[in-house]
Amino acid sequence: MEFILSQVSVWSYAFAALFHGLFTVYLLVAWRRHARGGFLILATLASTLWAVSNWWFAVSGQSWLFHVANGFDELRLAAWFGFLVMLLMHQDKQADSGELPAWPLPLSMLISCVGLLAVICFALEISVYDTPLRTWAGASMLISVFGLVLLEQFYRSVSDLSRWGVKPLTIGLAGLFAFDVYLYSDTLLFSRIHPTIWSVRGFAHSLAIPLVALSASRNPDWTFRIFVSRDVVFHSTAMASSGLYLLLLSGAGYYMRYFGGDWGQALQLAFLFGGVLLLGVVLFSGAYRARLKVWLAKHFFAYRYDYRREWLNTTQALSGASDGLGMGESVLKMLADLVESPGGGVWLRDANGVYSQQARLNMPHSGVQEHEHSPFIRFMLTREWVMNLEEMRAGHRAVEDVVWPEWVAEMDEVWLIVPLIAAGGLAGFVVLLSPRTPVDVNWEVLDLLKMAGRQAASYFARMQAAEALLEARKFDAFNRMSAFVVHDLKNLVAQLSLMLRNAERHKDNPEFQADMLDTVRHVENRMRGLMAQLMEKTPINQRRPVHLHPLLEHLVHARRHYLPRPRLDEVVMDLTVLAHPERLERILGHIVQNALDATPEHGSVSVSLSGDVNKACITVLDTGCGMSPAFIRDQLFKPFQTTKASGMGIGAYEVQQYIRELGGELHVESAVGAGTRFQICIPLAPDNSPRDTA
Fold first, then answer.
1. Is the pTM of this model over 0.70?
2. 3-state class (DSSP) for residue 442
């Protein structure tokens, strides 16, 4: 067997071996242990071995490898025949009576004979090296012709509804068998193997594999979990189209250069530059990409969308803003990309029940508003339709019970209106502009838009609920701060009222006048502090070292006009804590004031200070009416609960909260009719330096 080997044959069969091998591995991984899939794997495996043997022969030139490769070729064809027979048997089992042609017995006998012939040819190739060329070529051509006949019988047995799934397989195998018939007929006619035809055979057979894979992905009953990525198909098609365009461009430039005379080279450069520039415009054109996606979805896939990818894209768009877009723009872009729309607008419902534009993309701002009780909004909420305005305008779908707003007729570019329904309510709606390329809005598109719209509506509803909750928390914080401020003002007013009551009797007393000025000065300083906190000039939780002994002396001295008059027990040493001075004075003053209010004039109220190496303890002891354990447990520290006629019920609550903020502890011991003991323990400041107060 002598003919000229070339580098083309080496690369051709190397490519075929790699391509068939990868496809075989993929089929093995996706195989679900079924006979039809087994025959397909056997065919691709034999094709891989055939390509490897031919590549080895092209590299080394050893004639025995050529016979081995032909033996694997016969096995490969026999495996393809078995795969087609299995498909024919499956079609025969599914055929209704008289609807599809039954599988005739003579055909089965013929298949058996051809299979036997293939095995004999394989044995001849392995055992006898000097088989006559015409005998080998004639037998191989007969097998290839039988492959075409069997393929034709298989295609005829498939119903019209199912031919879409097997058409790529039929075209691929028909090309494979036809190429072999051409090779063997040329060999039989001229008694030699044409080197060029044999060299490109690897490339030719590899071209059938993508068509086989496409049919396998369209037929899940072949028991393969094959997934053809839309991205791979899209980019491969775009790359192949670009390559073909550049080849045509190069050919035209070559023609201009050699037949254009003096202008040839200039025309070639100008033409090539213009052609490459046009290719760049087309490749980056959204309309071109949209048309290519729609065309591929129509002709290569059973469903228009890759739902796994669309679900991930929808989740990604809703989980957070991307590319500098807000929540509304991200949702709008996600919905627009589903139907190749350039953009649109999002209308959301506010607290007053008015729908207004909250986000837009490639669309001018619109002041259009719809009220929640308008007929248009009620129609969307009731029907839950994705409304195609182009069909409405063309009269393809008549809706009698909907009243279209005026702005719908005024916006010619409006195409689809997608309702955003969540928890039985209409959170808003999305208006999409006319698409870049004509899109058939069928049931699949409508269902996908409804699904994505519902998911987007749930996110919008949660976002609005979170914003309302945040606003409510801000109001709650403001109201809480206002309650504390009012509580402080009440105490200051009480001090001024007490001063005014005593003014008539002691207005000529110099000591009273001095006390009055001190009280007014104290009230003025406290009110300025409250104003600063309200205006956020002074942080309410700013802490600094506070010496407790002077603070307690001031508290007791400020209430010296009360009956009973509070007293400060002897303090051996001063202690320092980290706290806000005014706030700490306020909560300690509240405890002392409560003790005075609960104690009769003949009773006693005392304040003491003690401590150890870690904490300072302030104790307020009175002989008043006391409290029951149930009251201390259930009501004392709950806000807005009080037993006083003019009280607000937040003093004890503020005491407990602030002591916890400082990392301290509050202990209460009381009994009805036996008085109350409050003890507050606060951690000492890190640089606390006790000083003698004697």
1. no
2. coil
